[in-house]
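Job type: complex structure
Entries:
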Amino acid sequence: MDGCMKKIPIPPSTELYIGRNLFSTDQLFACRGAQRAVLIADAAIQDTYAVDLAHKIGAELLTIPSGETTKSIETVCHLVETLCKMGCARDTFLIALGGGVTTDLVGFAASLYMRGVPLILVPTTLLAIVDAAIGGKTAIDTPYGKNLMGTIYPPKAIFADLDMLRTLPEKEWFNGLAEILKMGLIYDPAIWEMGEKNYQDPDLILKAIEGKIAIVSQDPTEQGMRRILNFGHTIGHALETAAHYAISHGEAVAWGCLAEAHLSMRLGYLAESDVQRIAAMYRHFPLKLPKTYTRSALLSAMAHDKKKALGEIRFVLIDKIGHALPFAGAYCRAVSHSALETTLDWMEQWKSHP
Amino acid sequence: MDGCMKKIPIPPSTELYIGRNLFSTDQLFACRGAQRAVLIADAAIQDTYAVDLAHKIGAELLTIPSGETTKSIETVCHLVETLCKMGCARDTFLIALGGGVTTDLVGFAASLYMRGVPLILVPTTLLAIVDAAIGGKTAIDTPYGKNLMGTIYPPKAIFADLDMLRTLPEKEWFNGLAEILKMGLIYDPAIWEMGEKNYQDPDLILKAIEGKIAIVSQDPTEQGMRRILNFGHTIGHALETAAHYAISHGEAVAWGCLAEAHLSMRLGYLAESDVQRIAAMYRHFPLKLPKTYTRSALLSAMAHDKKKALGEIRFVLIDKIGHALPFAGAYCRAVSHSALETTLDWMEQWKSHP
């Protein structure tokens, strides 16, 4: 993809622009027409990207603090109040510049302010490019769990500039890789195999994006099939909540994929050889359970999982690398407490395995 | 409609049940199937309706304080926290019992909690039955104006029990009548004529509901035609905001319809005889501008109107009783400051007119 820009439609109403050196083109400016625009950026990239971009596209600039704890109703209220004060109207564009925290939060505010203003996402991390920005989900956290409030609100456009990833720290690469590999486990075995050969292969990015677009296009409002994207996230989100976000989303999802692959085996769906293959991959990751981890905090956080139905916690499960189980259209199933405990035993012991 | 129940579909996905003595049937209970349900009621009707209904349908009961000031982000946060604490999941039904404040607020919370849980509305005031409950709009207020945050989130079902209106105070009747008559001015001249003959005619209710359903079905997300429902609301909402809700929504909308009819004449669209006919109707209303009214507070509140585009405040206008102007699909237009001032002069003097 060097030196070129791809335009990929995401049904029903989003255009994804992906490539290198995107901000040297006028595409982003053209996208909002003559409307007023407010760029809302992660404060950490104010000096490196935000001030320049705002100037270039003639947008007003607001910043929000970095980190998962920003994804709160307090930040949304403060943002909405600022937009009110500025006199922003229903035709004002909001442009989010930052990682998944920024795109989730600004997307949420855009979906509510005046019942919805036009939204453009400019994800700056691998995780946001391959996952958070795609599919229209917006969210904030509550003290009871991650993403417990949110909307489904597709942006008008997404600008993913791969040049931004050049300066990405290694930790952030693993953060995105966790979601890329998840796509390999649930949907596209070719992604998994590419990852096994070279997990730094940049072609993984486009493959993962294409997979996610295919899934969310089939089921935009998560009535069924889209649920497979939650593989690794029942345990993953609960780990984040229990650790008060002292663990990154990618690390939590890596732990979650590992454990939920084991659970798939424990319940008789997945071969032990596949679990070993999966475990071998995650040995590349700098995985460590948070110091504050306790099993009871994890189980209690899991009780707020969004896939819960009729009082039972449900899991997405896989029966081979590259395929999630449909369970007659539910794409998840309830799991006995004893099976879950065995998997958590295994997960907690994992680092000492050979 | 005595003794019977009508079922009216509202596209895309709502069933409206309207009639008398609805709660003696099991329809509401049947509607939620085997799912957990939480009834959220206006505290003012806890003893008269809420406890009984919750018991009858096997729902848990929460109450929220009465009055427009409840429609705040603080109430939503408190509600969401309570639902989290109760362990409510994505399949838990929320049932709103109360007037427009309750249906707007609970609808908003239902649209956000876990990115949307199933919603049933049980409006208990004339205003909520003919207007707030129909069309899927949810909202809360901000200190900068009314309904400045919200979503479009259609409920599964609406139960409108006309028996509840028997105990409605006269003030509440005028509150609903203001929205009924607005429907006569913008869409259905027969409603206006029925109102002129007898503004207490119960058949007005069903006519107004049918009109609103026809409009919102054509344009559910307010891209164009649905905007005509905002007739009377540019000045109406600003009056409410400027008065800190010391004026009822109906009274504010009645003032707004009166003034925006005058504005329609001032701009050359509406005949003076029609304005006189309209003014004669509103003489039945107990209209009084709030003691705290000032023109500058009104104009400043109007600056946050949701119809604003490219920096200009826009108005829905009518060219006869029963017809709003399409303005090439925009259904509203910007108005000069001097025309607006003339209309406000007239409005402020109105009670002293012959």
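Summary: The radius of gyration of chain B is 20 Å. The mean pLDDT of chain B is 93.
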